[in-house]
Amino acid sequence: KAGVTQTPRYLIKTRGQQVTLSCSPISGHRSVSWYQQTPGQGLQFLFEYFSETQRNKGNFPGRFSGRQFSNSRSEMNVSTLELGDSALYLCASRATGGPTDTQYFGPGTRLTVL
Amino acid sequence: QKEVEQNSGPLSVPEGAIASLNCTYSDRVSQSFFWYRQYSGKSPELIMSIYSNGDKEDGRFTAQLNKASQYVSLLIRDSQPSDSATYLCAVNMNSGGYQKVTFGTGTKLQVIP
To answer: If interface means Cβ-Cβ distance under 8 Å, which residues of chain B face chain A?
Structure first.
């Protein structure tokens, strides 16, 4: 079974631009979560989608948004990029998000904001 | 109190020794617990999951769970330099009626040859 895939793997943007990241979960998985990781910081939870609905959200400004499609693929958008948005963005999927579900990560998208 | 707490380290152990990584969590009713390994610049990789009190062994790795003490640990026997990484403890916790995976900040392990 193929793992979680993320595209693109690397991105360079300038301040003020916007960016869209894509994530394809493991086949059959309906829950997709997004995380931001910066050097020295742990995993910061952005949001989780399940069956096209956002069901959990972290403490990030409204510039960070996401959506999920009917095939469970998910996109994350960051508008008006700031230097501090430079980070590794990780997507993770799990089957349904039940109490014993295991979450698997994609390889990440490395975003650099200049 | 943080929901999932880990000592950030670094934890340094000599090659061949046992590395012991610890994690405590706040939600008394959590049912599932995970250990991930993350190499620098890479994404987290699942090592172990544990759901019941006691020990669970997989090769050189042993996860230990004590729900009464809200404590989960990971032992790495015969530590190798390739085990040098950050180890993340994760707990499935109730959040607004859903199960949310909550991570600790990770413990950096250094295995000295």
So the answer is: 31-32, 34, 36, 41-46, 49, 51, 88, 90, 92, 95-96, 98-106
pLDDT above 90: residue A99 = no
Does pLDDT of A1 surpass 80? no
Pairing of strands B4-6, B11-14: unpaired
Classify residue A66 by burial, with Cβ atoms within 10 Å: 0-12, 13-18, 19+.
buried
Percent of chain A past pLDDT 90, that is, above it, reads 88
pLDDT, average across residues B40-61: 95
CB A13 within 8 A of CB A113: yes
Phi-psi region of A36 (alpha: psi -120 to 50; beta: other; left: phi over 0): beta
Rounded Cα distance, A97 and B17, in Å: 37
Contact A104 B46 (CB under 8 A): yes
User: Would you say residue B1 has pLDDT above 80?
Assistant: no
Pairing mode of beta strands A44-50, A31-37: antiparallel
